[in-house]
Amino acid sequence: MRAAIRRGPAIVVDECEIPPPGQGQVRVRTHHCGICGSDLHAIHHFESFIDYGRRAGLLTGRIDPGRDVVLGHEFCAEIVEFGPGTERALKEGAMVGAFAVNFDEKGAEGVGWSNHYPGGYAEYMVLTESMLVPVTNGCPSERAALAEPMAVAIHAVNKADHQDSAYMVVGCGPIGLAIIAELKARGLGPVVAVDYVAERRAVAERLGADLLVDPAVGDPHDHWAGLDVPYGPVVYPRAQSRARRAVLFECVGVPGMLNRLIDAAPRNAQIIVAGVCMAPDSIEPSLAINKELEIKFSMAFSADEFRQSMHRICEGELDVSPLISRIVGLDELPATFDELLTAPRSAKVLVDPRR
Amino acid sequence: MRAAIRRGPAIVVDECEIPPPGQGQVRVRTHHCGICGSDLHAIHHFESFIDYGRRAGLLTGRIDPGRDVVLGHEFCAEIVEFGPGTERALKEGAMVGAFAVNFDEKGAEGVGWSNHYPGGYAEYMVLTESMLVPVTNGCPSERAALAEPMAVAIHAVNKADHQDSAYMVVGCGPIGLAIIAELKARGLGPVVAVDYVAERRAVAERLGADLLVDPAVGDPHDHWAGLDVPYGPVVYPRAQSRARRAVLFECVGVPGMLNRLIDAAPRNAQIIVAGVCMAPDSIEPSLAINKELEIKFSMAFSADEFRQSMHRICEGELDVSPLISRIVGLDELPATFDELLTAPRSAKVLVDPRR
């Protein structure tokens, strides 16, 4: 089958083998698969990506970066073949997403994070039947493919304190935008959206962000006081009536960003780190302790959050259509990766391997 | 009056002026005052200490490090004189602690963190009457002086997740030990106490720590699995029945320590940072995100936590006596600072300026 393969620090379109569906597995045809920031990290930072996974005990730690990997874990696909020992509650032709972990006689292994199980940048995948989540309500495949990144956003938003908080989303790439979508779908706010890129701020606006800030033009932290968040020197006595708490989502993931937030954040703020910084980073703990900040690192989601995400998208409770920038074929993936790695202006780009 | 003065990077015993009690203020005679880790930082790191305070908007940011400062903010003292405009609900001779902030016509200023208001390393202090907290129940002054560091511990423990958690206290200096005392006073555990120094581990044992680890001999993180905390690679499917969450208290505050905990901690652990690291520090965010760690920086306490701390010590609900290593006079302070800065073996050392 055709696939876009991570081979060395490049994406190469080539033929590859698809494993036959094993015990309890199904073969699916990929309709749409999103490009994730982690897929981008896998181009130039794959060794450290794997090393961090290994040190944290994750399945990604088992990948051999010297061998081919077909990336892609944000997919919507059609069941085309059942392997042995399957229950077949869903039928051939059914559309599904999946919590992207496969089980076989060797144990658990990621889908799209594996030398063995190709991900969604390929015409076909093998998935474990028990991990499938059906697409319902006739939801278009390209929207259902957003169930994965929206689950990441739901998970990050679940970690936040929502007792009269004011929100700042720093970085309006796909995850920052998905977090804005989730906050506004829950009726939460005010939400300040921060990004240098006008196209991404425009998507944030369509998703309902209350305030858009281009940090090249103004300091986003100038807005805290106007949002009833105490900002600046401690005022004694400390009683502050009707004060909002600041919740910041760090969705950039480059070195230095976390400490810029530690330096600029209001006292007692909560920082949810959803952007993955691939290098060691320097922070000033004395600033964080003097402000009593709280930093929660957020990654992935639970199986339940994934099911919720798919359900809410399919039922129209979460309108993810503003997040979708465009859909490309496999042949366009190398150039798309180049754009997203160098000068990203898009939100979510999906690949349709049928094209 | 006599005082131990921070003058340049040294403690010097000398005479100094005591300001007259102003509007709403009282003059007190210091009975006991504890040496805090922050006081130690004020010897060699005073400039950055002040700079971090300034950047975080704290009162400490206003100190001029080139001028004398009489340190000491963990005190118990006797009221000896009332200034104008005082309410005098307490009487002369009453023993008090205080939330160490003074108010005057210029605003708020720290006590013991000021070029103007001497702290407890002096025979006398001036305090704002409304900030006084009375010592009750005939509680000995040296124990009441522990209300301040115990409030720091209460505050740190209040930040932790206590839904079936297992605790590790890394560093058994005064704050680590106070945290152990508070955890055990609340009936929480198991508590693993970690320190290189045998004397400090012995105090941790007296305070009820369930497991003592000398990291020169064994890896404290080897104990997680035995405490029902999932440790090591992620196991799929993730359902883990009756699993405890790990809560780690970082009470060391030297560069590198936080990332050692990020590297060694179980997945989903909560790290409460109570040790103040005075230098920029390097962390590996990808490890923290892959493990979904939560880092809460904890400093000081609320006025209510301070009152609670004093009350519980006076009522005998918190036995702080194991924390007190010894009581010294002003003349012994320079040598005591030297010991605590170079090879600390003590828990809390108090100064009694009446000696």
TrEMBL record, chains A, B:
Keyword Oxidoreductase assigned to the entry: answer is yes
Listed InterPro entries: ADH-like_C, ADH-like_N, GroES-like_sf, NAD(P)-bd_dom_sf
Q: Recall the GO molecular function terms of this protein's record.
A: oxidoreductase activity
Record's superkingdom?
Bacteria
What's a Pfam family this protein contains?
ADH_N
Q: Where is the Alcohol dehydrogenase-like C-terminal domain?
A: 174-312
Residue span(s) of domain Alcohol dehydrogenase-like N-terminal:
22-135
Keyword annotations from UniProtKB, A to Z: Oxidoreductase
Question: Signal peptide span per the entry?
Answer: none
UniProt-recorded name of the protein:
Threonine dehydrogenase-like Zn-dependent dehydrogenase
